[in-house]
Amino acid sequence: MIIQLLLCVALALIFIYAVSQRRRAFLPALSMAAVALAGGVLVLLPQLANDIAHVVGVGRGADLVLYCLAVLTLAAVLNIHLRLRSDREVVTELARRLAIQSAKVRDEG
After folding, report:
1. Membrane-spanning residues where (predicted)?
2. What is the rounded CA–CA span in Å between residue 51 and residue 46?
3. Count of structural domains, the chain
4. What's the pLDDT tens digit per position in 27-54?
5. CA 87 from chain center: how many Å?
6. How far apart, in whole angstroms, are the C-alpha atoms of residue 109 and residue 102?
7. What per-residue confidence (pLDDT) applies to 109?
């Protein structure tokens, strides 16, 4: 019972944070809020996770939750990687333009 309370509090805080960030990043905030809400439902109704697991062919609800968490984690890591790569390309382009601009100023001066 204590773990349910702790998990519900943690998921509620994540849900509140996600909702507060909806203007900055709507889709990620909506996704995070939905996952937190689904997690809260499964924490309060653990038998529901078992029922869903049996429907999709997984032995236990805990295993299903773990599999879903693994997929979500991999998707998040891929998303972060792609954003960092994109940011690195933008910084590289800006650095090149700045270097060219600085060289032109020195040549003219």
Report:
1. 30-49, 61-82
2. 9
3. 1
4. 989 999 999 999 999 999 999 999 999 9
5. 18
6. 11
7. 63
